[in-house]
Write a structure and sequence with these properties.
Blueprint lengths: L2 H7 L7 H25 L6 E5 L5 H10 L4 E6 L2 H11 L7 E5 L18 E7 L9 H10 E14 L4 E3 L3 H16 L10 H7 L3 E7 L3 E2 L4 H19 L5 H16 L3 E3 L2 E8 L2
Parallel strand pairs: 1-2, 1-4, 2-3, 4-5
Antiparallel strand pairs: 5-10, 6-9, 7-10, 8-9
Helix pairs in contact: 2-8, 6-9
Bound molecules: S-adenosylmethionine (SAM).
């Protein structure tokens, strides 16, 4: 396996067109929360910002819009397919302030990759990435080195993934959630990664400026529930392919979800948190 393929494989959800389309729908649902976090961090015109684990670049394009022509955005990911998708859009020439960089955020040579000048960046945005990394140190070292003093790091990561639930009922979903967590852990990820971030960032001198919960509890027709159902319509296939979820378990899960959609139900998301940190 090539280095690129190996680092791409570390993203357990993959980078095919189906996952890319799911990320786009997910981005649309969480966009408002993202923009509020950027306001909170003071991301604005003329700044130099990083999008760490940018995926197909849905947020990167919005960062580019936010910093404007006088700013600069560097979108970093390990998956060539996602970066190529973003590059295709950049070839239309709309955002000369946005560049991409292929880099494995879980590995470190001790020096910043070229294109990432030291202490020059005003901020970094990182959403749903740390949870997939087998080591957090390379990511946090990169942020410490790249941000200028006073630069801001904004994270959206999960603090307790097993809060994902359907009430009432939901026993098949609870089993599915358990298997997902195990699958990610076996791939070196940590779906509760936000529990570890405060100590690691404090040890690097970062100051926590703001934190809040983005966890939601919604009825069936709410966009956040549609987001959960979207995940539940794609990920079982991957778990089954990995031999971790059976057709019989899937049939029970589908019946349970259909029941939940027909009745008054509470769909509770995994506990997502927003964190804004300042570099010393
Ligand atoms: C759930 S997606 C989130 C994408 C984007 N941040 C967003 O909010 O739409 C996770 C991303 O992390 C990237 N990723 C996972 N492991 C990585 C690694 N070791 N180095 C760089 N990127 C990685 C994946 O390729 C994928 O694009």
């Amino acid at each position: 396996m090539s280095a690129a393929a190996a680092s791409e494989a570390s993203y357990v959800l993959g980078s095919d067109a189906i996952e890319r389309a799911r990320l786009e729908r997910q981005h649309a649902i969480w966009r408002d929360a993202m923009l509020r976090s950027w306001d909170q961090a003071g991301f604005g015109p003329g700044q130099r910002l990083l999008d760490l684990g940018c995926g197909p670049g849905f947020a990167s394009l919005e960062l580019a819009e936010r910093v404007g022509a006088a700013g600069q955005v560097l979108a970093i990911d390990s998956a060539p397919a996602y970066l190529e998708h973003l590059e295709q859009q950049l070839r239309q020439g709309q955002f000369p302030q946005l560049r991409t960089l292929q880099h494995d955020l879980a590995s470190s040579s001790g020096v910043l990759p070229s294109g990432l000048e030291e202490s020059r960046w005003d901020g970094a945005w990182c959403r749903w990435v740390a949870m997939f990394l087998p080591q957090l140190e390379p990511l946090l070292d990169l942020v410490s080195q790249a941000l200028r003093p006073g630069g801001r790091l904004v994270l959206h990561e999960y603090v307790r993934w097993d809060t994902f639930a359907l009430h009432p009922g939901g026993s098949a979903l609870a089993r599915f959630v358990e298997r997902c967590i195990q699958h990610w852990r076996d791939h070196g990820g940590d779906p509760d990664v936000a529990q570890r971030l405060p100590a690691l960032l404090e040890a690097r001198g970062f100051r926590l400026l703001h934190s809040s919960s983005l966890m939601a509890c919604s009825p069936s027709d709410h966009p956040k529930t549609q987001w959960l159902l979207d995940f539940l319509s794609s990920y079982p296939t991957q778990l089954m392919a990995a031999g971790r979820w059976s057709a019989a378990e899937q049939a029970t899960l589908e019946a349970e979800l259909a029941w939940g959609e027909r009745h008054a139900s509470l769909w509770v998301t995994p506990a997502l948190v927003e964190l804004v940190w300042e570099r010393p």
